[in-house]
Write a structure and sequence with these properties.
The chain has strands at residues 2-6, 9-12, 17-24, 32-38, 45-51, 57-59, 67-72, 77-82, 91-97, 101-102, 106-111. The protein is mainly beta and 112 residues long. It is globular and about 40 Å long.
Length: 112
């Protein structure tokens, strides 16, 4: 399985961005997709996850109510809709499949 992120960029505080993660390969083996992020000087942290078949989602407390994870099963793509962005959301966002497959990351920068 391979995953490729897209959709990062620069946005002002209060704005929105939507990240995409396109998966390819042996799709039948995927059971969990997730987003993580890593800010400069900090450890990578969990953001959101969704089960591939059932669509059950879970979020880090810091993004609950602002971020929404979703999937398009027909396009093998997972999305992260990020609303009401804050400067502390600035980080490289990584897509993850089944805990051990990582994308290259996409930069999200939120200006105050």
């Amino acid at each position: 399985v391979h995953v490729v992120e897209s959709g990062g960029g620069l946005v002002q505080a209060g704005g929105s961005l939507r990240l995409s993660c396109a998966a390819s390969g042996t799709m039948f083996s995927i059971y969990r997709m997730a987003w993580y992020r890593q800010a400069p000087g900090k450890e990578r942290e969990f953001v959101a996850t969704i089960t591939w078949s059932g669509g059950t989602a879970d979020y880090a407390d810091s993004v609950k109510g602002r971020f929404t994870i979703s999937k398009d099963y027909t396009k093998n793509t997972v999305f992260l809709q990020m609303n009401n962005l804050k400067p502390e959301d600035t980080a490289v966002y990584y897509c993850n499949a089944n805990y051990d497959v990582w994308g290259q990351g996409t930069q999200v920068t939120v200006s105050s």
